[in-house]
Specification:
Elements: H1 2-21, H2 28-39, H3 42-49, H4 53-67, E1 72-75, E2 78-81, H5 83-109, E3 114-119, H6 122-129, H7 133-139, E4 143-148, E5 163-166, E6 175-190, H8 191-203, E7 215-216, H9 225-234, E8 241-242, H10 246-254, E9 260-263, H11 264-267, E10 273-276, E11 284-292, H12 299-314
Parallel strand pairs: 3-4, 3-5, 7-8
Antiparallel strand pairs: 1-2, 5-11, 6-9, 6-10, 6-11
Helix pairs in contact: 1-5, 2-3, 2-4, 2-5, 3-4, 5-12
Length: about 325
């Protein structure tokens, strides 16, 4: 009898807590509680959610402090639900189902509205995302998408963007991450340049790329895989052109200035470019979708995240 009364008090507290947070769609405490309950571990729950284990631990402590009860027993083998925690599972799952149903109804009805800030690279914005936006906007006319393509990396923790599509896996910050796929690169030159180098290679006994001109990156982009590959091939020689814009490198290759390492989905789409066989083909980068954890359950952000996920999957063959 006493346990039943205690559980009712806990359930009412949980309901009050999440009704207060519902306006901001911040259901992370319930989500993290369920993840730990289902996995029995902070680390496994964090891996499933795409956040740090310390973040999950803090949220469990916050939830327990709000309710005034211990929801888990901590041990060396993991986290085990207490009687109070066990009594909350059904209530928490009801919140989870309501959240999912709300997002699905919102997406299906096209009533999602508001501003979403997406940070990504210039080449992904121009060659992948923007061409697919007409259909997306027709489905969600009240949603205002702002795409940020600054060279500097945005900080999701400071809310400089709501979500980001990146080629580097985020390692810091309160963000949920998801690997969407991979992007392959290759070496490209204009038709005229490739034909000229083939003719010259028959007349000269030179190394494979000893006489080639290359379009490269500035020194402070030296950590890019493409920049590292070009620097190894040049062996101290000066490039024909240095630019910090991938689109400018594409334009330079089209103009016949030299060879450029480009994403295959960009290079293959250009009728005046040809792929030059090389080990640059092994340069593979991963797509990572990062969302500020507080916005994971936001319907407007989730719609954009689903759009990006589907877009990458649909284009996986050419990427």
């Amino acid at each position: 009898m006493m346990l039943s009364i205690a559980l009712n008090v806990v359930e009412r507290s949980l309901v009050h807590c999440y009704l207060a947070n519902m306006q901001n769609m911040d259901w992370n405490l319930v989500r993290d509680f369920l993840a730990v309950a289902r996995t029995g571990s902070l680390n496994r729950a964090a891996q499933k959610l795409g956040v740090n284990a310390s973040t999950v631990g803090r949220r469990i402590e916050t939830l327990e402090g709000t309710l005034g009860v211990h929801l888990f027993q901590r041990s060396q083998t993991g986290y085990v639900l207490t009687d109070e925690g066990e009594g909350l599972i059904a209530r928490a799952e009801a919140f989870e189902e309501a959240s999912i149903a709300f997002e699905r109804r919102a997406e299906a009805s096209g009533n999602v509205e508001g501003r979403v800030l997406l940070a990504t690279t210039e080449n992904l914005a121009n060659f992948l995302i923007i061409p697919a936006l007409p259909d997306f906007r027709a489905q969600h006319p009240k949603l205002r998408l702002e795409i940020l393509t600054d060279i500097r990396a945005v900080n999701l923790n400071r809310r400089e963007a709501d979500l980001a599509l990146r080629m580097v896996r985020p390692t810091q910050g309160n963000v949920s991450i998801r690997r969407l796929g991979t992007m392959h690169n290759g070496l490209y030159g204009s038709v005229d340049y490739v034909e000229r180098r083939q003719a010259e290679s028959k007349e000269k006994d030179t190394g494979r790329f000893d006489e080639d001109e290359f379009i490269s990156w500035p020194e402070h982009y030296g950590d890019l895989p493409a920049a590292q590959w070009i620097n190894r091939v040049l062996q101290g020689r000066a490039p024909a052109l240095v630019t910090s814009s991938l689109y400018a490198q594409l334009a330079a290759a089209r103009a016949g200035l030299g060879l450029a390492v480009l994403p295959c989905f960009m290079g293959d789409a250009e009728p005046v470019l040809r792929n030059v066989p090389s080990d640059a083909d092994v340069i593979v980068q991963e797509f990572w979708l990062a969302i500020h954890t507080d916005l994971v359950n936001s319907a407007r952000v989730r719609v954009v995240a689903n759009f990006l996920t589907e877009l990458v999957h649909q284009n996986s063959a050419r990427l």
